[in-house]
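User: I've been trying to design a sequence by hand for this structure and keep getting stuck. Would you show me what you'd pick, starting by listing the structure so we're on the same page?

Assistant: Good idea, let's start from the same input. This is the structure you sent:
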């Protein structure tokens, strides 16, 4: 009986597995499946910029239009010459190639069909790509690598593709408890509903109008305004135990009655407090040198509105976000599958200020 064999680097396999890798990665990625939207009008925390997927270039420049602040001209007073010019703040993101690969071993090691090897390689590499993107989003939004263990990236990592990390500015960092700085943060300055309420108050009152600080915009979900906070699981524990069982139950119940509860932003969340959808994730950036003695463990929770960061892709020449390449080595004995993507990630900053994210510094210690 005749059998169809799709050889190495067959165009059908390249396209099939490139598309499959992109779909798998999007489904597995924490930020990709929950907090990402495409285009300039998206109100999601991560803004996808598709401009370079079909065009040449390695940089995208994007603008923020500032509100008008002129006083009105009353009655028959002359308006000519008093008109206000349009002001915009500009930021940009660069893209570059990143690659990974799998060596499937020699023929005697494999002992399975090439199709199975492709499927297994796609699954493992989609895990790798999803994990890498999530780590990058956490680092860029936090403006730091931190001391998290188990990261793909080393502790000295400072960014890629000419997009360096940007530390939070003074208007976009808050401290839990009574702390007012990194040095004053004590082990007792833990995550609480009060901290969340303070973040909402800061986001609501900060910037806009005639000020030079861009105002953080809430995420719109089914016509309702929300913010999102992602905290470390140790901070989640502090919030749960400090809130009390009854109040924590109310936080969880509030999600069940929310208009946008079917939105991906709500799925897998802890609950909602003061219209802030709460999440926790182990990759929230942690530190070990806070406090007066530089020995207090802390984590940088992320209080996010719309367009806190941007992600831009460039096509690797196939019209797809990922490229799939197969080759043999050792005189045809080893089959090697490599994948690549051209992309860039950056926290949005305008006029020297962060735009859609507030860093929330709170103590974080292993409760075990």
């Amino acid at each position: 009986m005749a059998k169809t064999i799709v050889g190495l680097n067959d165009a059908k396999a390249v396209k099939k597995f490139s598309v499959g890798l992109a779909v798998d990665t999007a489904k597995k990625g924490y930020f990709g499946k929950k907090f990402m939207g495409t285009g300039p009008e998206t109100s999601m925390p991560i803004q996808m910029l598709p401009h370079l997927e079909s065009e040449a270039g390695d940089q995208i420049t994007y603008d923020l239009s500032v509100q008008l602040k002129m006083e009105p001209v009353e009655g028959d007073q002359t308006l000519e010459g008093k008109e206000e010019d349009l002001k915009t703040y500009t930021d940009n993101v660069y893209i570059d190639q990143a690659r990974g690969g799998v060596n499937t071993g020699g023929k005697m090691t494999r002992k399975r069909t090439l199709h199975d090897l492709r499927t297994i390689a796609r699954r493992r590499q989609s895990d790798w790509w999803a994990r890498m993107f999530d780590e990058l989003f956490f680092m860029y939004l936090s403006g730091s690598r931190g001391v998290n263990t188990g990261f793909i990236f080393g502790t000295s990592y400072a960014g890629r593709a000419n997009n360096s990390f940007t530390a939070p500015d003074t208007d976009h960092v808050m401290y839990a408890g009574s702390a007012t700085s990194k040095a004053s943060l004590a082990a007792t300055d833990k995550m609480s509903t009060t901290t969340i309420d303070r973040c909402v108050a800061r986001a609501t009152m900060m910037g806009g109008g005639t000020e030079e600080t861009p105002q953080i915009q809430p995420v719109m979900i089914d016509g309702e305004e929300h913010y999102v906070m992602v905290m470390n699981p140790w901070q989640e524990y502090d919030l749960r135990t400090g809130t009390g069982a009854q109040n924590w139950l109310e936080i969880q119940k509030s999600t069940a009655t929310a208009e946008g509860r079917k939105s991906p932003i709500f799925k897998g969340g802890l609950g909602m407090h003061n219209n802030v959808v709460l999440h926790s994730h182990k990759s929230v950036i942690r530190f070990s040198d806070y406090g007066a003695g530089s020995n207090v463990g802390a984590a940088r929770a992320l209080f996010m509105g719309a367009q806190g960061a941007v992600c831009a892709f460039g096509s690797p020449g196939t019209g797809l976000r990922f490229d799939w390449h197969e080759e043999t080595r050792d005189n045809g004995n080893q089959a090697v599958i490599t994948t690549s993507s051209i992309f860039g990630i950056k926290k949005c900053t305008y006029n020297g200020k962060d735009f859609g994210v507030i860093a929330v510094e709170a103590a974080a210690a292993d409760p075990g």
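That's my pick for every position. To get oriented when you compare it with your attempt: The longest helix spans residues 114-142. The helical segments are 11-28, 30-34, 107-110, 114-142, 193-205, 233-243, 245-256.
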